[in-house]
Design a protein that fits this description.
Length: about 120
């Protein structure tokens, strides 16, 4: 029996949360469970409460922005892959997040079953 992989989405955008839920439902390499929070503070609380297989995080949150978000997540959850979600206008920032330890990045509107499986080869 395969263990359920817990995924955490930290993003204020409800459309991203909808894409995330749909991707989880259609993912073929699960089982996955997902949780959506809208602030970095809520995300940090979840990381303290439960084991997370991967984190999907926006770089534009109500309580954190830019590379500071990645730095805090990397410190709070060492070894957990972080996938950054950013707009096309912030692609340079998303690329810089890779140098800060993010595993990969997605442009907004591209959360799908393939992105859910991004960390499969690392775990």
């Amino acid at each position: 029996m395969t263990d359920t992989r817990n995924l955490l989405l930290i993003d204020k955008n409800p459309a991203h949360a909808k894409e995330f839920r749909e991707a989880l439902l259609n993912a073929k390499n699960g089982p996955f469970s997902g949780e959506w929070v809208q602030t970095l503070t809520q995300g940090m609380e979840r990381l303290r409460e439960k084991t997370v297989w991967a984190i999907f995080a926006s770089l534009r949150l109500p309580d954190s922005a830019g590379l500071d978000t990645i730095d805090k997540l990397m410190q709070a959850a060492p070894g957990v892959p972080v996938l950054v979600i950013g707009g096309i206008e912030h692609e340079d920032l998303s690329t810089e997040a890779l140098r800060h330890g993010a595993k990969d990045y997605l442009l907004e509107g591209h959360i799908d079953t393939d992105s859910i499986a991004f960390g499969q080869s690392t775990k």
